[in-house]
Structure formats: C-alpha cells, structure tokens
C-alpha cells in the first residue's frame, strides 16, 4: 500500500488510520459480521412482530407508492427515500407482514455492508462488537423493520465515514470513493438535513487537506441524494427557503432548545415525546445512555495509544454532530433521532470494552471480563424489556386504528372516501380512504371543500369523545366508538 495510507486527514504523516493490507489479514471479519447481521435480522422478526401494523409516519411513506390507499399529505420535512425503499413490495402488495420481513432482511444486509467497510480500520472483534452493540439497542431493533428513515441514515453514516477514511488513506481505492458517494446519497435521500449534520466534520476535513477527490465524491453524493427534495421544494412548497422554514415550524421552531432530558424521557419506550412531560424512566433503563459518551471517550484514549486516533476520532465527532440538533435545537424528542449517533459511537465504545477485557494483567483479566460480561448481560436484558413493552403498546395502538377503520366500513364509509379529524392520516390509510386537514402541520384542505365533497363521497370526521365537531359535520349522523365520536355522511347513492 502507498505511503499516503499513513497520512492524517490534514496531510501530516504517521497519525492516520492504518489500513491493513489484504495479504496481512490473518482473521477475516466477514464471518463475524455476517453472524451479527443475521442475528439482528432474526431478532427483528422474532421480537418486533411482522403483524404489528403500520405507524402514523409509515402510512404516509407507504401510501405514496402503494395502492391500498390514496397518497397522504407529504409535509415539508419529509423526503422520498423511504417511499422508494419500500416500493419493491408496497407497489404490488398491501401486506404489512411481508413489508416487515423485507425491511428486516434489508436492514440486516445493510448493517453487514456498513460494518464491512471498516475492515482494516478496526480489528474484526471490535467491528463485530460494535455491530452487536448498535443492533441490540431496543430502538435499533424497533425501527429496523419499519418504513422510517432514521435507521437508513445511521447505516449510511457508518459506511460514509469508513469510506471517507479509506479514500483519504489510499488514493487508488475507487471502491471507497464510490461507496462514499453512494452512502452520502442514501443519507440525503432519507433525510437531507441529517445528512448535512452527519457529514459536516468530513466536509471540514475535506477542505483542510488533500487529496480533493473524497470531498468531491462526498458532495456529489449529497447533491445526488438531495436533488429531488430540492426540486420538489420549488415545485410544491414555494422554494427551498420556504420548505426549510416550514420544516422548522413543524418541528416547533429550530433554535436553542435543551432537549437532553426530553431524550432521557423517551428512552423508556416513548416513540414520540411531544410534548415531553411526565416522570423520568427508571434509572436502570437510562444508565447506558450516560455511560455511552464516557466509554466513547475512553475508546478514543485507547485508540490514541494504539495509533488509531483518526479512525476513532472521526466517527466520534461525526456522531456528536449528528446528535447535536436533536439534543440542543428542537423542543421535543424521539429516540430514533439519535440512531446515526449510536451507530457511529458504537465503534469507539466497542474499542473501549475490548481494551477493558484484554489490557489488564493476567491476574485481573478474569475480573474485568466478568464485570464487562455482567454489564452487557444486564444491558441486553433491559433493552429487551423496553422493546417488548414498546412493541406491545404500539401493536395495541395500531389495532385500535384497524378497528376504527372496520367501524367506518360498517357505517358505509368505504373507498373512495375521505377521513378528517383526530388521527385521520393513519385511520384513513387503514380504511383505504383519503385524509384531509384544515389546520395544523398537515393542512391540505378547507371546510368548504370537505363539505362539498360530502355531497357525493362518503366522509367521516373523527373527534375525541366530548369534543365538538367542525361546523360542516354538526348535522351529520354520529356514533361513539373507542373514545371517539364518528360524524359521518354517506350519500344516498353510496349506501
């Protein structure tokens, strides 16, 4: 390998990531990494039941390409990456279990490929442990088989950082360059703003040092992934600045918001903590979150001593910038927001844990191994408890939407139909109807249009029990159902 492989990212020598030549690798990591990926896929299928049903955001993404229901309103912050991801299944089948299986297998394959890009930058056992740590988090298992973007940003970030380091170390590594562009495009296709935060340190390093090609490929990948989002901004949202402003407004107004405690509250299994109030989870469920940065810094110290400073520092910094907006710039929390940070920080954490069980003297090594093994076992058990609770609660919620859809069909509100009001978007998807809102983040209609539609199309308005319906629905028939009152109008010709 050329001497440039031992330069730092700023051009100085002897401090860069050391990539082991292929002929010198005595232990091939593919088997270990494949085992981690397969275990991750199987765990998703066993623990996150394929029949869980689609969540609110999932119905929006899937409806864009599926035939089960008309496309739901696509708000400004969303990107089309997830819809493209699920299209091979959703375009011809409305089976949620089939979609879950497809995504579980695909997410396991993506994890394997992302970890594989780190070959030679970390020992195989560190890579396997890093993959296992990330894959065993309840939030990773929960969102791996879901039609949501955050997991895909995470694996894209993991691959992008490795490809960037490899391309900087070896100018002849074309696979790393193309891998960098592809992984950057994946991130930007899923969540353009997240892609910028993740790659910000890489863009800075690209400006500081040579060669220029990794930086150019990184920018090309980001542009390729985000170009559709930018074009759509001008076609449908009034321009890029307007779309960014609307996205900020939907997220409560981006600015200085200390959301650390909000994220801690979400660790008990709250998929969306907005408004984020209530008691904090049991400290046993959150202690890993506070230990994580400490172990990551410890891993950096270990890496500096071992001569792997750059390969550890860069993912650590990228993980920090990925987490920054969700810890300090929004006024609510969702655990999935931090998946890219968890994926990147898993590498230095795995390095720290590996050092703890191998570095002590022979007399103390059994004690260190026992303590680390005990800590990991307790951590896995607690992650399983949170995952099981979250899956049960989510499944019950989705079944409630399905029962409401069945009641709407019984009342005569069948496709083609229109649903408005409380939780209209997911219930409309389950019922095979369109959805509409006259106010809020998903506003896409007016009361006059809805009233006019009711003259020739079945329309239902859902309001919480005890609440007043909109003026256009006050004279419609109504029934109480599952904590809701359904106000509905079915034209005589459709009954």
Keywords:
globular; 5% strand; 495 residues; 2 domains; mainly alpha; 5 strands
**Helicity range of the residues?**
55-70%
Q: Main sheet, how many strands, which sense, barrel?
A: 5 strands, mixed
Q: Looking across the biggest beta sheet, what order are the strands in?
A: 2-1-3-5-4
Indicate the mean pLDDT.
90
Alpha-carbon distance between the two ends: 75 Å
State the helix count.
18
Write the H/E string, N to C.
Answer: HHHHHHHHHHHHHHHHEHEHEEE
Q: SS-based structural class?
A: mainly alpha
Strand content: under 5%
Query: How many domains make up the coordinates?
Result: 2
Query: Unreliable stretches, pLDDT < 50, 5 or more residues?
Result: 1-16, 20-27
Q: Can you walk me through this structure?
A:
The protein has 495 residues and is mostly helical. The protein folds into two domains: 3-359, no CATH class; 396-494, no CATH class. It is 60% helix and 5% strand. It is built from 18 helices and five strands. It has a five-stranded mixed beta sheet. Helix 17 links the parallel strand 1 and strand 2 (434-436). The chain is globular.
Would you spell out the secondary-structure blueprint of this structure?
Elements: H1 30-47, H2 56-63, H3 81-90, H4 96-116, H5 124-135, H6 138-143, H7 150-169, H8 174-190, H9 192-208, H10 213-236, H11 240-250, H12 260-266, H13 283-306, H14 309-328, H15 339-358, H16 365-410, E1 418-421, H17 424-431, E2 434-436, H18 447-453, E3 459-464, E4 477-481, E5 484-489
Helix pairs in contact: 1-4, 1-5, 2-17, 4-5, 4-7, 5-15, 7-8, 7-9, 7-10, 7-14, 7-15, 8-9, 8-10, 9-10, 9-14, 10-11, 13-14, 13-15, 14-15, 15-16, 16-17
């Amino acid at each position: 390998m050329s001497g440039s492989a031992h330069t730092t990212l700023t051009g100085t020598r002897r401090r860069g990531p050391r990539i082991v030549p292929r002929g010198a690798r005595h232990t091939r990591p593919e088997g270990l990494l494949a085992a981690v990926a397969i275990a991750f896929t199987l765990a998703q299928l066993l623990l996150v039941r394929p029949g869980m049903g689609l969540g609110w955001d999932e119905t929006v993404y899937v409806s864009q390409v599926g035939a089960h229901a008309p496309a739901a309103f696509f708000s400004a912050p969303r990107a089309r990456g997830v819809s493209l991801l699920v299209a091979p299944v959703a375009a011809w089948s409305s089976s949620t279990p089939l979609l879950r299986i497809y995504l579980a297998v695909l997410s396991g394959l993506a994890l394997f490929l992302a970890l594989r890009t780190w070959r030679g930058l970390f020992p195989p056992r560190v890579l396997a442990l890093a993959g296992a740590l990330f894959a065993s988090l309840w939030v990773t298992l929960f969102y791996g088989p879901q039609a949501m973007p955050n997991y895909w940003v995470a694996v894209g970030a993991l691959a992008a950082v490795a490809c960037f380091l490899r391309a900087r170390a070896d100018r002849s590594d074309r696979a790393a360059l193309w891998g960098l562009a592809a992984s950057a495009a994946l991130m930007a296709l899923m969540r353009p703003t997240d892609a910028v935060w993740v790659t910000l340190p890489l863009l800075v390093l690209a400006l500081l040092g040579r060669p220029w090609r990794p930086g150019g490929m990184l920018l090309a990948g980001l542009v390729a992934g985000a170009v559709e989002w930018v074009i759509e901004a001008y076609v449908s949202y009034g321009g890029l600045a307007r779309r960014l402003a609307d996205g900020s407004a939907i997220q409560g107004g981006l600015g200085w918001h200390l959301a650390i405690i909000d994220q801690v509250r979400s660790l008990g299994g709250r998929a969306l903590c907005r408004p984020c109030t209530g008691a904090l989870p049991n400290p046993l469920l959150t202690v890993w979150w506070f230990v994580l940065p400490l172990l990551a810094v410890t891993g950096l110290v270990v890496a500096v001593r071992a001569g792997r400073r750059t390969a550890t520092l860069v993912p650590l910094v990228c993980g920090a910038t990925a987490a920054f907006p969700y810890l300090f710039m929004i006024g609510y929390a969702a655990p999935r927001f931090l998946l890219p940070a968890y994926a990147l920080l898993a590498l230095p954490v795995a390095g720290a844990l590996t050092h703890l069980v191998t570095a002590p003297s022979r007399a103390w090594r059994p004690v260190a191994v026992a303590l680390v093994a005990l800590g990991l076992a307790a951590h896995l058990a607690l992650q399983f408890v949170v995952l099981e609770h979250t899956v049960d609660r989510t499944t019950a919620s989705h079944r409630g939407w399905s029962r409401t859809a069945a009641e709407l069909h019984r009342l005569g509100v069948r496709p083609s139909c229109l649903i408005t009001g409380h939780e209209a978007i997911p219930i409309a998807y389950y019922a095979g109807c369109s959805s509409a809102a006259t106010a809020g983040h998903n506003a896409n209609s007016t009361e006059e249009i809805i009233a006019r539609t009711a003259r020739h199309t079945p329309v239902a308005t859902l309001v919480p029990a005890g609440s007043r319906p909109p003026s256009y629905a006050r004279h419609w028939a109504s029934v109480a159902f599952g904590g809701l009152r359904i106000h509905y109008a079915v034209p005589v010709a459709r009954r």
